Amino acid sequence: MYKKVRLKDTVEVPPKELADVSPELVKRLLQDKLEGRMDEDVGSVVSVVNVHDIGTGAVLPNRPGVYYEAEFDAVTFDPQMQEVVDGTVVEVVEFGAFVGIGPVDGLLHVSQISDEYLAYDGQNQQLASSESDRTLAVDDAIRARIVTKSIDERNPRDSKIGLTAKQPGLGKHGWLQEDRQGREAEAGD
User: Fold this and answer.
1) pLDDT at residue 144 in the model
2) pTM for this prediction
3) Do residues 68 and 13 make contact, with C-beta atoms less than 8 angstroms apart?
4) DSSP characters over 76-102
5) According to the model, what pLDDT value does residue 153 have?
6) How far is residue 160's CA from residue 14's CA, in Å, rounded to a whole number?
7) What are the pLDDT digits (tens) for 126-168?
8) Which of 5, 32, 117, 132 has a CA positioned 20 to 30 A from the CA of residue 154?
């Protein structure tokens, strides 16, 4: 889920920039420091959008810059447990598919995609069912639910989000459309 939040953080202004400590400068320094960083409380910082207040600044011993506390607005992506998300398959591997949901990827394990057995087709980079001829490949749009979440603040790339698509209303968009058309055809009979 994307959110706009008000945050406070400290930013170091290097000596060469001290003549012009402006909201624009502090915003740029905050963007360099925070964008792409994961935080357990707010999620992934997507963008610093507005600086509201800049403190007076503090000098620390043996440090060249001046440290300013700033209050600012940021857009964050904070995936919530049980949240339904739309994403795009970015990689297919033997044990499942990685799905891009916002600025992070979630793992859709092969056991959580379908009740049918899906075999890995490495040559075509897809998971395929021999029962229904359905496939899941890179760039496919999918709707899934977040079922596990482990955020690693020190190494954001090591954060893990687990997904499922086995519940009604979840799955590859094309499959959902086929299922809907099948139900409508049955209702019309």
Assistant:
1) 96
2) 0.73
3) yes
4) EE---TT-EEEEEEEEEETTEEEEEET
5) 65
6) 35
7) 999 888 888 999 999 999 999 998 876 666 666 788 999 999 8
8) 5
DSSP string, 115-181: SS-EEEETTTTEEEETTT--EEETT-EEEEEEEEEE--SS-GGG-EEEEE--STT-EEHHHHHHHHH
Residue 139 tokens, joined = 């760039």
Q: How many CB atoms lie within 10 A of CB 98?
A: 19
Task: Compute how many other C-beta atoms are within 10 angstroms of the C-beta atom of residue 147.
Answer: 17
Of the candidates 130, 129, 125, the one whose C-alpha atom is nearest the C-alpha of residue 140 is 125
What number of residues does the chain have? 189
Taking a C-beta distance cutoff of 8 angstroms, is the pair 113, 96 a contact? yes
Which two three-digit tokens encode residue 114? 């379908």
C-alpha span between 174 and 120 (Å, rounded): 19
CA separation for the pair 100, 85 (Å, rounded): 10
Q: Which residue has the tokens 């001290």?
A: 18
pLDDT in tens, 31-67: 999 988 877 778 888 899 999 999 888 888 888 889 9
Both tokens assigned to 78: 């904070």
